[in-house]
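Following up on my earlier thread - several people asked me to post the actual chain instead of describing it. Fair enough. Here it is, all 126 residues.
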Amino acid sequence: QVQLVESGGGLVQAGGSLRLSCVGSVTSESDASINVMGWYRQAPGKQREQVATITTSGLPNVADSVKDRFTISRDNGKNTVTLQMNSLKPEDTAVYYCYAAAGQYLGGSYRYIDYWGQGTPVTVSS
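Reply from S.P.:
Thanks for posting it. Predicted structure:
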């Protein structure tokens, strides 16, 4: 029903910046509506963790570990979400996944379904 495609990952030196983008798309047969969007990340051997989310009204929720360095934004009309990452540290190295919750009628009821992008790797060297 919903496809998420990320871009912008890569290699960067510590202290540098990257901007991740994610574009959501809905199939023509679906009337799904994308609601909350955000970014998660997963480092090797670790569990996936929430980095930042943002509501349709633009209210952000950013993890304390990156709150002073990362900024999340979105464009509701284009179903896109971006993550501006500044002052990157080696511990930010991970695969970053775009997330979206989409509301849709399934099984006779309206509910939110979680969708995930394929992931884009970010490597920060020291």
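The first strand starts at residue 2 and ends at 7. That should answer part of your original question.
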